Amino acid sequence: MINTMAMEEETLPIIIVGFSIMMLLSFVIVISLFIKSHTIREKKAMGYFLGFLLLFSTSVLIALTVIGPPGKPSAVTSMRLAASGILWFFSMLSFLGGVLSTRQDSI
User: Which residue spans traverse the membrane (predicted)?
Assistant: First the structure.
């Protein structure tokens, strides 16, 4: 017996479109902040945040493919979830790099 998550047919495309719009808006804001930044430290931080957004967006979109219609082999699902998790890990490292690069003092 296959245990799948029941949802309406339109739900996944709505989630993907909504997420994509939010990420696009985030990219525009971070790129505009990158352009307006004056110091190397600020540009470095915005670069880290751009890396975070790119990796995180890719991670979520890969994870959302697992929610799709049933019938995929479990190995494919496992590999997609593993790839998504690895990308999420690196996105969080990039996020932390951006946060830490905004500090005046070193840790």
Answer: 12-35, 47-67, 79-100
